[in-house]
């Protein structure tokens, strides 16, 4: 338990004492938010996500491969 | 029918996002080892007795901490730029991402594990742990951060190498997926091994040029002279060593391309009609009006080295190197992957085999659905016999099998010419260090210092050009010979893709500007701020 406390304190102090790192982290968090909650949800929906099972996915891909000629 | 607009939009999006990602990755890969070396010097001096050694230790510590700060900014800026690429596999390239099965998924998963556990964990110790953990543990963390970053890259490069030279798998017609049957064959394929070597050394060279460029900027400003000169020394040695290995592995790359992707080599050279004793084009201007079969010289102007292309491609000065027309028409002798001599078949025959493979898949699917086992077996046999040319069944004409020649040709020349320049650059830097030219850099030296600073964007151009050759040169294939882009792309609308391209471009350019501002402000602050 003592070790976990020390590890926690290590990270906590490290993040707290950051200067330029705080700005970088803000940019990273903004970027991750945009990627996962805007782009991923609204623009990057996996094409096979409507398929419920791997079998349905393979059937859809086979259909695509055979019909795209 | 898949519209060409959709294919172009999807390719454009992937190219832009991949190039954006590749702005940050090579500096992380190379600078990690430069910092690890600097910290090793600090550690060794800190273990020695005496005031002079302790002062040297402090000097190397300050040097390490400055470059570690630059590393941290670049590392943070690069975070998540690769995730967009993974999104696109599922959205724009769903047929491809399903078709590759375990082959792509496993290396990407391992890459993620390495990135998360190794890099992130030890990076935190490297960044937060100064004077908090033991010197030995901190040094180990720095080395493990550098190694972890490079190990992450290993797996994605293995996946990319498989796209260029698919081996170690069997196609399962029940699931339409390629299943890995030989992990070692995938990991240790000659294309994978060379690609790892070539990409890693290119990253090391890039990082070295960046360190020298930034250090020369300090010399121009007449600041932090001792730190700048020492940084230049470390980077020049690392850089020259890397650049020479890069040239050696570049030769290996071209040899692999000649054996496994001859059309890519033909495009790289602008070679329409091959022959024995083929010359290597050092520099040329392509005729923009050149078309296949017109009998015209592809070059408006060229400087060539006689027989050099034959030697590089076949290890025989009189070896036959096929051009675009030869590959389409077939009939020439070549050695396959096992070294067996074969006669190349023409495009039309490859296309027929591809069509047979696609028809066999259709028959297999029908037989599986109706429970007709004998038909299923016959179809499976026909599919297996012709699967090596599966992708050709989607190509309507021979022209579709030819990649963009001009872009591949010029990108290759930019890469090689700049690569050669950097070898000379590092030699010049080392010579000037030996002569003590940097120690009292006066007005006479200024031109070289400006050249060093200007070399920073040049090395990024060199690095990106290499990937353009690799990825544009393999068009139309997402997987060489097995899956062209028209069969790989999803059924989304082109306008949707262009919308995401625009969003990505605007948002990430804004973020990039903000991130670069932070990077430049750290460089501007210099070594003075480091305690």
Order of helices and strands of chain B: HHHHHHEEHHHHEEEHEHEEHHHHEEHH
Helix content of chain A: over 70%
Order of helices and strands of chain A: HHH
Approximate strand percentage of chain A: under 5%
Number of strands of chain B: 10
**CA-to-CA gap between the ends of chain B?**
63 Å
Rg of Cα set of chain A:
22 Å
**Record field, number of beta strands of chain A:** 0
Mean pLDDT of chain A: 82
How would you sum up this structure, described in words?
The complex is a heterodimer of chains A (about 70) and B (about 525). With about 70 residues, chain A is mainly alpha-helical. Chain A has three helices and no strands. Chain A is elongated. The model of chain A has no long low-confidence stretch (mean pLDDT about 80). The model of chain B has no long low-confidence stretch (mean pLDDT about 90). In chain B, strands 1-2 form a two-stranded antiparallel ribbon. The longest helix of chain B is centred in the N-terminal third of the chain and has 43 residues, at about 5-45. With about 525 residues, chain B is mostly helical. At the A-B interface, helix 1, helix 2 and helix 3 of A face helix 2, helix 3, helix 4, helix 5 and helix 13 of B.
Key terms:
heterodimer, A: 69 residues, mainly alpha, 3 helices, 0% strand, elongated, B: 531 residues, two-stranded antiparallel ribbon, 18 helices, 7% strand, globular
Furnish the topology, listing elements before pairings:
The complex is a heterodimer of chains A (69) and B (531).
Chain A (H helix, E strand, L loop, with lengths): L1 H15 L3 H24 L10 H14 L2
Chain B lengths: L3 H43 L4 H28 L4 H9 L2 H6 L2 H27 L6 H30 L4 E4 L4 E4 L2 H5 L2 H31 L4 H36 L1 H8 L5 E2 L3 E7 L12 E7 L2 H7 L5 E2 L2 H6 L3 E3 L5 E3 L3 H24 L2 H14 L18 H30 L11 H27 L4 E3 L3 E2 H4 L5 H32 L6
Antiparallel strand pairs in B: 1-2, 3-6, 4-5, 7-8, 9-10
């Amino acid at each position: 338990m003592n070790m976990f406390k020390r590890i926690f304190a290590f990270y906590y102090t490290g993040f707290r004492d950051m200067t330029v790192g705080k700005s970088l982290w803000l940019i990273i968090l903004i970027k991750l938010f945009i990627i996962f909650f805007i782009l991923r949800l609204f623009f990057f929906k996996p094409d096979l996500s409507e398929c419920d099972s791997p079998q349905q996915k393979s059937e859809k891909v086979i259909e695509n491969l055979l019909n795209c000629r | 029918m898949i519209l060409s607009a959709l294919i172009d939009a999807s390719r454009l999006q992937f190219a832009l996002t991949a190039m954006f990602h590749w702005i940050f990755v090579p500096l992380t890969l190379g600078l990690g080892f430069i910092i690890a070396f600097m910290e090793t010097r600090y550690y060794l001096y800190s273990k020695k007795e005496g005031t002079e050694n302790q002062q040297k230790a402090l000097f190397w510590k300050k040097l390490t901490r400055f470059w570690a700060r630059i590393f941290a900014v670049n590392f943070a800026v690069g975070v998540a730029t690769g995730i967009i690429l993974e999104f696109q596999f599922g959205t724009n390239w769903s047929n491809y991402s399903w078709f590759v099965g375990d082959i792509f998924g496993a290396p990407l998963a391992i890459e993620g594990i390495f990135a998360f556990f190794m890099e992130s964990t030890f990076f935190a110790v490297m960044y937060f742990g100064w004077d908090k953990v033991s010197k030995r543990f901190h040094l180990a963390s720095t080395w493990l951060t550098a190694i972890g970053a490079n190990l992450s890259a290993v797996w994605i490069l293995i996946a990319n190498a498989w796209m260029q030279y698919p081996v170690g798998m069997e196609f399962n017609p029940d699931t339409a997926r390629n299943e890995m049957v030989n992990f070692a064959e995938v990991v240790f394929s000659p294309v994978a091994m060379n690609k790892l070597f070539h990409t890693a050394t290119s990253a090391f060279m890039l990082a070295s040029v960046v360190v020298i460029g930034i250090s020369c900027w300090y010399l121009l400003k007449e600041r932090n002279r001792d730190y700048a000169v020492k940084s230049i020394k470390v980077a020049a040695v690392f850089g020259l060593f890397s650049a020479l290995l890069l040239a050696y592995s570049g030769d290996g790359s071209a040899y692999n391309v000649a054996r496994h992707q001859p059309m890519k080599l033909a495009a790289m050279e602008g070679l329409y009609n091959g022959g024995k004793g083929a010359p290597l084009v050092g520099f040329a201007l392509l005729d923009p009006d050149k078309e296949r079969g017109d009998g015209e010289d592809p070059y408006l102007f060229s400087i060539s080295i006689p027989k050099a292309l034959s030697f590089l491609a076949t290890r025989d000065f009189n070896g036959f190197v096929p051009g675009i027309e030869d590959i389409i028409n077939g009939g020439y002798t070549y050695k396959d992957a096992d070294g067996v001599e074969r006669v190349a078949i023409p495009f039309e025959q490859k296309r027929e085999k591809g069509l047979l493979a696609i028809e066999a898949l259709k028959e297999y699917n029908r037989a599986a659905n109706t429970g007709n086992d004998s038909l299923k077996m016959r179809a499976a046999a026909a599919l297996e016999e012709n699967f090596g040319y599966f992708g050709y069944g989607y190509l309507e004409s021979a022209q579709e099998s030819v990649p963009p020649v001009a872009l591949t040709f010029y990108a290759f020349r930019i890469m090689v010419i700049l690569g050669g320049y950097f070898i000379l650059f590092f030699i010049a830097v080392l010579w000037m260090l030996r002569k003590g030219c940097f120690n009292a850099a006066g007005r006479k030296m200024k031109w070289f210092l400006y050249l060093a600073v200007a070399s920073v964007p040049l090395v990024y151009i060199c690095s990106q050009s290499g990937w353009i050759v690799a990825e544009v040169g393999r068009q139309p294939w997402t997987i060489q010979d097995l899956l062209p882009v028209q069969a790989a792309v999803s059924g989304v609308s082109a306008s949707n893709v262009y919308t995401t391209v625009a969003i990505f471009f605007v948002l990430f350019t804004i973020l990039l500007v903000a991130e670069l501002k932070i990077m430049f402000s750290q460089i501007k602050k210099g070594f003075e701020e480091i305690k």
